[in-house]
Amino acid sequence: METPEKAQYREEDFDVTPIREIAQDVLSEVSRVIVGYGEILQHLFIALLVNGHVLLEGVPGLGKTVMAKTFANTLGISFRRIQFTPDLLPADITGTKIFSQEEGTFVLQKGPVFANLILADEINRAAPKTQAALLEAMAEKQVTIEGETLILDMPFIVVATENPVEMEGTYPLPEAQIDRFLFKLWLDYPEQDEEVEILKRQITGESPAVDHVTSGEEILAAQKLMNKVYIDDRILKYIRDIVLKTRNHPQIALGCGPRASLVLMKTAKARAAILGRKYVTPDDVRALAVSTFNHRMLLKPEAELEGLDIKTVIKNILEEIPIPI
Predict the structure, then answer these.
(1) Neighbouring-strand partners of residue 142
(2) Dihedrals φ, ψ of 149, to 5°?
(3) CB-facing half-sphere around the CA of 95: CA atoms within 13 A
């Protein structure tokens, strides 16, 4: 692709260095506790920059909960963990009004959703009605309790986890709610050397403490700065062509909607910023396509019978679409 100068890119009076430095500090601090998963952590920070949400999928014991908690601690923002179980009620998430004998009236008791980073642990174990209690908060950044609408504090990000092997007693997330997640990320088993490093860090039985390396105010400022990152019309058309291909692909039964295009555009700008660039390149788009699309598409049964999976099909599409130059 042409350089920004050749593309008549106008240099604006802003600097993305603060975003890159915050990202480096956060990821470095989290790595003191979490071994590996560098790309996953980068995706988490990208989601934070665009006020999006992340669905983590992986077998039990991979440290999904520790990862989310450590990430929140380094950011210096409030963190709440909600353990989803079959008997969890919507009011257990959003809160409710209770009668106060001292005041003689009903007072609002806020639920755990009123925090900056929410860990929805094993979200697919709760009933659909309870899962839906998060939908308004995720989509509108607000909560309605008995007719009263309350705006959530920013930044606000939901990190949900689910275990693919626990089929009994689980309720798969409906497509409408899955689509609210920016990314669906798969946590695989650690590499051999990484597993040895995990054991070494636990020999003493003490986990290293992490420091706050940023704050909610700095994150909000970084979000505004990230919006200034330049994206060329050719990149926008490249995103359009990729998404259109998912809708007209012989192996795909359900392609991606316009929200996927918006997500890919916003997250590409965020990735460019944390890498220290003021403009988006095709590499930013390609690096985020799988995580953006893999939960927004359905393969045809015959494609699955052939042994294909969503990730393979998306990668094939990326190879088919010409890269803008």
Answers:
(1) 151
(2) -95, 125
(3) 22
Q: What is the pLDDT of residues 90-137, one digit of tens each?
A: 888 888 878 777 777 877 788 888 888 989 888 888 888 888 888 778
- Structural domain containing residue 118: 17-216
Provide mean pLDDT across the span 72-86.
87
Establish if 23 belongs to a structural domain.
Answer: yes
Least confident range from 10-14, 35-39, 128-132, 232-236: namely 10-14
pLDDT at 242: 93
Say if strands 157-162 and 117-121 run parallel, antiparallel, or are unpaired. parallel
Q: How far apart (Å, rounded) are the C-alpha atoms in residues 94 and 112?
A: 7
Taking the C-alpha atoms of residue 57 and residue 39, their distance in angstroms, rounded to an integer, is 14
CATH of the domain at 78: 3.40.50.300
Mean pLDDT of the chain, nearest integer: 84
| pLDDT at residue 244, as a whole number | 92
Closest CA to 81 of 100, 99, 67: 67
| CA 214/CA 198 separation, integer angstroms | 26
Contact by Cβ (8 Å): 44, 75:
no
* 8 Cβ neighbours under 8 A, 6+ residues apart: none
Strands 105-110 and 54-57: unpaired
- Return d(Cα 264, Cα 266) in angstroms, integer: 6
Are residues 32 and 123 both part of a single domain? yes
Contact (Cβ atoms closer than 8 angstroms) between residue 180 and residue 140: no
